[in-house]
Amino acid sequence: MMVHSLQKDTDKAEVEMREYAHTADQDKADFALEGRREDDENSPEAILERYPLLRDMTPAELDKLNRRVRRRIDIWMLPMITFMLFINYLDRSNVTNARIAGMQKDLHMTDVQWSAGISLFYVGYMLTQLPGSLLLSKYKPRIILPLTMIAWSIPTICLPLATNAAGFMVCRFLVGFAEGPFYPGIALLTSSWYVKEELPFRMAIWQGAITLSAVFGGPFAASILETMGGIANLPSWKWFLLIEGAISIFVGVASYWFLPNWTNNTPWLTLEETEMAQYRIVKSAGGIDEMQGDYTLFQGAKLAAKDPFTWLFAALHFFLIVGQAYKEFLPSILHTFGESKLTTYLLQSPCYFLGYLATLGVGWSSGRFKEFTYHTAVPLVLSIVGVAMMISTENIGVRYTGICFLIMGTASGLNMQVSWETTVIPSPRHKKAAVIAIANICKSIPVAFQIVDRTDHPSMYTVSSTSHWFSPYFFLRNQEPLYRLAGGLLLVGCGASILSVLAVRWRVNRLNKVLDSQNDVENEQRRERGQADKSQAWRFPI
Hints:
Elements lengths: L1 H27 L7 H4 L4 H5 L10 H34 L1 H7 L2 H4 L4 H28 L2 H18 L6 H15 L2 H10 L7 H27 L10 H20 L15 H14 L12 H10 L1 H16 L6 H6 L5 H29 L3 H20 L3 H29 L4 H16 L39 H45 L14
Helix pairs in contact: 4-11, 4-12, 4-13, 5-12, 7-9, 7-10, 7-20, 8-9, 8-10, 8-12, 10-20, 11-17, 11-19, 14-20, 15-19, 15-20, 15-21, 17-19, 18-19, 18-21
């Protein structure tokens, strides 16, 4: 009973802290509400008064300006971060493809040494995610993100100079170290420009780049690895790494002219557009500015570590990756269909393309209906059905359909998880950056302990370059063709993901009840004073 009471007090304190921080931010704002501020500082009209260039506009003019700002971000930022992430995942998988072309043999590396190099990538990756994300939240993304891309390209280009296992390990560590802040950074940037109704679909677009890299990465790798061997007396894998590194540097430099900073300091927006960009986000968050208060980077990280949402979303992210443990072994699964290597390779692309379409569709629907729980859980149910189809029959058509269902559900679930966590925690920005990074770190922990693929089938240019440290023990050749042990692992991942979704929903409902209770008490007091009811400033999205 005492524990329940303490938890209830903790929840109420968290809500009160949000209310207090919001009130403090309002006190600092330099605008006049002509009496309305005392009545309801969170109404759309009161929020609009913070922006001098907008306050006298008609609703039609505001709507036109809003659409113009959104269109500019859609045209400039969204395609660029999508392409950058596409290149990022091609780069991440490049050593897997290079291995097939003879890289491991040329460097005289054992399987253990190769796996150590793969693991060191994720060690470096985890080290920089949190500090890198926090620094990005403080400084200019259009400078930091391009520099990040250039930074991971340099050791990629240097990798062909390696002559032994040590050189390979050092380069892979440096690539991971440079890449760490990138994924959390673009998630943070997107959440700071799009309102909660727009966010799931926009995130689905760039999240889809991960899936598209699996569709187009194979043909790209094959076109180089099968044709350029011997040119200038270099093996094809060296050309492959050099070309990928050069493309990344070019894209990184070009991205400076496309990316924005934050809503208050993007140079290619007019003053009116700048105010509208800020107004959109603050209004969507119920009057809360993501840069409210004077939080330091450390304080933002501390707030994230204390928030139960951080660890709930970290658990959800972790289990979603367990549900995607098939990625490294998809060629091995498809190989059991008895087709040629070329056909096996080609069969991968339709599965991933369907996953991309599902991600877009579910993301659009989530924004349209302003709902997260079922849009995250239902696709995972589809994945569970898909796994059941994969492991219950040897019929090739049924198994292939099951693989498609599995990919569609887990790809959609991962997008919904990232968009939900950035909507639940709209501010302060440093805290939101830490939440995204911590969830991504927890996802990366099992991958850092990569061991040798025990399926003994070639990866055939598969884009997924990693698997969980425990995955190879489930995808064993004596489990062919159904891989039922591996199917059990995938079912656990998808099932635990659904339970994590329900846990997030439970906490959201609990905090919203506290907010409703407080709002009812305040409105009762306002009615006694002859004032109108106060607008509900904020509700946690469910």
